[in-house]
Amino acid sequence: MKIVVPIKRVVDYNVKVRPLSDQSDVDLNNVKMAMNPFCEIAIEEAVRLKEAGTATEVIAVTVGTSASQEQLRTALALGADRAVLIETDVLLEPLAIAKALAKVIEKEAPKLVILGKQAIDGDNNQTGQMLAALLGYGQATFASELSIDGDTASVTREIDGGLQTIKVNLPAIVTTDLRLNEPRYASLPNIMKAKKKEMDIQPVDGLGIDVAPRLELLSVEPPATRQAGIKVDSVEELVGKLKNEAKVIS
Amino acid sequence: MSTLVIAEHDNSNLKPSTLNTLAAATAVGASVHLLVAGKDCQSVADACAAVEGVEKVLLADDDAYENQLAESVATLIQSVASNYTHILAPATTFGKNVLPRLSALIDVQQISEITEVLSADTFKRPIYAGSCIATVKSNDAIKVITVRATAFDPVSAAGGSGAIEALGSAGASSLSSFVGEEIAKSDRPELTAASIVISGGRGMQSGDNFHLIETIADKLGAAVGASRAAVDAGFVPNDYQVGQTGKIVAPDLYIAVGISGAIQHLAGMKDSKVIVAINKDEDAPIFQVADYGLVADLFVALPELAEAL
Ligand SMILES: Cc1cc2nc3c(=O)[nH]c(=O)nc-3n(C[C@H](O)[C@H](O)[C@H](O)COP(=O)(O)OP(=O)(O)OC[C@H]3O[C@@H](n4cnc5c(N)ncnc54)[C@H](O)[C@@H]3O)c2cc1C
């Protein structure tokens, strides 16, 4: 069984992102970039399925600028067998990314596609579901448990009310939630080995899809800031303030 | 112009997030229809028809929609999509699952989790865990949008007199099937709708220690939440998680106990009206957003607080 894992290069989750001074976009100058944390979980799940003998090949794919090769190398160091970069000059919107991924997947014909549930840059939470629609596949989003049983996958999903279990026919799209697994770190020997693994780079133009943006970014502002509060010295003072000053408890 | 809102429900009751989503729909300015897809869900349709400002309720009552799986529901919405200029759903796990699928089916770039409607095609939404607010304009013919419930005051559930119209089934998809659900049952208010929330973090040290928080929650009529660290450690179930990738809450009072205040946690609670932080580390970032900070050992402070209430 072949597994395709689409990943994304994003700002590292520890970075506090700010708007550019002209508020035309976010300021990504000289910030640390990394693989989106949910994509690391997706790679980990695929690699574990390979280690368990369920999967035979894991292919990491990204749609992004040339710099994304760095994150594909990380995916290879974490255990992916080969990588595909669909190269673009600019960051595409989720629908365009899903269209590009659909082309790759039609060609690779994997039995399973695992993606992160959201990328922590745009926080859109769309690409997996869109990809499922474009391919006519079933979808199991926000997965915290995944098991493969012949031609179906059984997936436990984190939903607002608790947990839901569904079965999806393969090929299917699974998107990862935080508790699906704890990703490993790449070892030095594996980082070295990753340098020799195959990376196929293709321009997005060659795919014959429409990737023109549908949205216009009019501005990016900082969020409303909160007034700094006070420190109280005791529980008694706290309760007094909540009752008499904030009036939020009675 | 008319707007279709996808109702969130459990086949018997309409979820409050739908009322917040309707507020966003009203702000768009078009006439508003609600779609109820479920099984044996007439009571939900009746509730929808009574909601302020709803002109029409489309009711698709069919086996195919019993568990509201994304494949079937997205196809159903697609069957009526061309009648609308806007299609909205709450940005809950239900809306997040279904709407992007619909969006791709009708070749639209969805706008996720809007917090403000500026005009019929321009919206504000948080990005990068709420570190920035983007204003985006959609050039698609149909706008597909999920709505952050806490950013919109709910419309009234009463006073409307919408007409209920049956909508034919678009068929059940065989791509996926429902196996089971573990839905947490609690006498406490629902996390995203509660007016007071008290959350525990890694500082709680164990699931057993959460009883210290629960005692206070029960005295205050509060919901209980948690940080990711507390959920990952297994202290409490996943549905307690507040944050960028969990639930968004904005109660009148949010009490963070043993939570450091990582940006991913703040993303889920910093719009609360009053924030209280209890943490033994006076430099914890949570104090930067707290209206009232108490530097204390939670194992001393929580029993005292329970006593004082
Ligand atoms: C992709 C991604 C998504 C994420 N999504 C979320 C999310 O949705 N929600 C979320 O919460 N986090 C999220 N996180 C995790 C986030 O970055 C933090 O790791 C997490 O919020 C930390 O939880 P915490 O504050 O409970 O733990 P810690 O940061 O370990 O803080 C524990 C705090 O407890 C205090 N403490 C300890 N003992 C006591 C005591 N006896 N008395 C008083 N205080 C005490 C300590 O001083 C400390 O400040 C995400 C991370 C990533 C990478």
Can you give a write-up of this model?
The complex is a heterodimer of chains A (250) and B (309). Chain A has helices at residues 37-51, 69-77, 94-108, 127-135, 188-194, 235-245; strands spanning 2-6, 9-11, 33-35, 57-64, 82-87, 112-116, 138-149, 152-159, 162-169, 172-176, 199-203, 215-221, 230-232. Chain A is an alpha/beta fold and 250 residues long. Chain A has one domain: Rossmann fold (3-Layer(aba) Sandwich), CATH 3.40.50. Chain A has a nine-stranded mixed sheet with strand order 9-8-7-10-6-1-4-5-11, with helices on both faces. A two-stranded antiparallel ribbon of chain A has the order 2-3. In chain A, helix 3 (94-108) crosses helix 4. The longest helix of chain A has 15 residues, at 37-51. The radius of gyration of chain A is 21 Å and the shape is globular. The model of chain A has no long low-confidence stretch (mean pLDDT 97). Chain B is α/β, with parallel strands linked by helices and 309 residues long. Helix content of chain B is 24%, strand content 28%. Chain B has helices spanning 17-28, 42-49, 70-80, 93-105, 210-220, 228-232, 263-266, 298-308; strands at 2-6, 31-38, 54-61, 86-90, 111-114, 116-119, 122-127, 132-138, 143-147, 163-166, 176-183, 196-200, 223-226, 253-257, 274-279, 292-295. In chain B, the strands form three sheets. Chain B has a seven-stranded parallel sheet, with helices on both faces. The longest helix of chain B has 13 residues, at 93-105. The model of chain B has no long low-confidence stretch (mean pLDDT 97). Chains A and B meet through helix 3, helix 4, strand 7, strand 8 and strand 9 of A and helix 3, helix 4, strand 5, strand 7 and strand 8 of B. The complex binds flavin-adenine dinucleotide. Flavin-adenine dinucleotide sits between chains B (201-203, 227-230, 241-246, 258-260, 262, 264-265, 268, 279-281, 284, 297-299) and A (13, 37, 120).
